[in-house]
Amino acid sequence: MKTNTIFNIKTLAIFSFIWLFASCTNLDEVVLDEVLGEDASNPAGALAAAYDRLGDGTFVDHGGIFSLQEYTTDEAILPTRGSDWGDGGKWRDMHEFTWKSDNAVVVDNWNKLTNGITRSLTAIQSVEESSIPEKKLFLAEAKGLLAYYLYTTLDLYGQAPYRDPMNPNAPLQILKADTQIDQLIKDVEALLPDLAEMGTQQTHHGRFTKEAAYGFLATMYLNRAVFKDRFNASSNFNFTEAAATGTGTDMDRVIYYTSLLIDSGKYSLESDYFKNFARDNDKGKELIFAISQKIDYIRNGSNSFAYVCMERNQRTSAANRGTNAACTTPEFFATWDGNHDDPRFQQKYQYSDGTWFKNDGTDVSVPATDIVPKSANLPWFHFNRGIEFGPQYGPILLSSGSLEMINGRIKVSPLYMEKSTTTRMDFTPSLTFKNPAQAVFAQNEINQGARIFKYEFDPEGGNGNSNVDIPLFRLGGIYTMRAEAYFRKGNTGQAMDDLNKLRTSRKRESLYGSTAGRALTAIDQTVLYNEIGFELYWELYRRPQMIRFGKFDLPGTAKPASEPYRRVFPIPQSTIDVTKEFKQNQGYN
């Protein structure tokens, strides 16, 4: 993430002064990133460092929080594909529910999140000790980020570390999800008077604004019942409990905060659903809180969510390719039965001369007039978006290092797998593992799995870089939260109205007459559950959703029925070894 655009500072110092797990109580200075600026104690620099942790792999890479929130669900799976993606079994552990306290994904994400806590505490200290004109605003943002990192850590691990940033002798505190959720809600609500409204005081969707707080508070209230009773074996969570603050129940507060956003007039639903995830979405109409990404050759944005699904022989240019890793499961694909005409399911690409890439075997060529930005005049091939399945077509890379052309246009051909050259690139919705309990494909089976091309593949700057801003809270998700809250209160009509607002606001591409999505005529819990998935797939929401609806423990493809203790991850053993205040989560001893 390009942090130096957040505060319009030329060069930022990214430092941290608190080492949460140090045995001593001194506030030792620890250099976290060698981006050295004019003043290491600059409050804006310290706050930018806290924002920077959102990017830099944490919420923008498939191996970051995504791997915990999505690879453990029916929406995403990263199997071992022949000779690729074995990696000691760390990816398979996520979907097979065999992770332990030393799993590299579990450990790496714990370290990223606790580093985010550390950076936020550093920013709070730095701003508190300053006399800058923006003190109240920056302090509110720093505390908002702290709450966000703490909440995510408590959601995933059930525990989180904390130290008072203003007391150098403060002991390490271990916060627990069931007791801390109410305090987090109160803390964020207390910030509202000092947070800026988005668009004022030079803020934008990359800053923790008042509107970001509304989305965050709605999220916390939606999941509060789970936090308080995480290991309820029957998943009979009490969503009607009296709210931590204000009047009414948790669901009333979800409705209150989501309605503030929906009724504000500041946001509107994109008729083209996939604009929310395009390389030029920095002006997106739905984005409430997002990770601002730029290819700036300082810290480039991450292309991971696009790159991870695309096959190695799928090339947006002669210099780009995918990596043939993740896919979705048959269970999630099946939820779309009868809804393949939904504008959120799939979208075909049209070039400026009117040519459509249909990816159905009828394509001969597409124009070579689109050029990869900042490239040596490389033609840019656009793959379709959404959920891609079946035989795949596209350009072929010649031994000369250029894409195959025909009459000055990019030739479209049937594609084969790069590492199994006689295997047709056929993204089968089914996954046929030899051992049903293990997500392992033979070399000639590495084509399997419907792929998610939701985020636009940005070919500028290499396979790993992207200008796509990554949504954390956006208007479409706000509507799903309000619909769920209405449903849990028994207001099924209002829930259906919100879901239909999403459905009918989205339009298909002009190839299909720009038709709007079909409205629902009835709703039950299954319909609600599926509709949330249609709107939010691959946006790091599936695991909490599955837990709320009692589906996380159920068996599925390469996943056994699991015990409730798996609803949180273990504290890394390396942390427990050096920090005796932590006790391992139940079930992992």
TrEMBL record:
Source taxon at top rank: Bacteria
Record has Repressor as a keyword: no
Species of provenance: Flavobacterium humidisoli
Keywords, in A-Z order: Cell outer membrane, Membrane, Signal
Matching Pfam families: SusD-like_3, SusD_RagB
Lineage: Bacteria, Pseudomonadati, Bacteroidota, Flavobacteriia, Flavobacteriales
Signal peptide: 1-22
Domain RagB/SusD: 336-588
Residues annotated as domain SusD-like N-terminal: 95-222
PROSITE patterns attached to this UniProt entry: PROKAR_LIPOPROTEIN (PS51257)
Similarity annotation: Belongs to the SusD family.
Name this protein carries in UniProt: RagB/SusD family nutrient uptake outer membrane protein
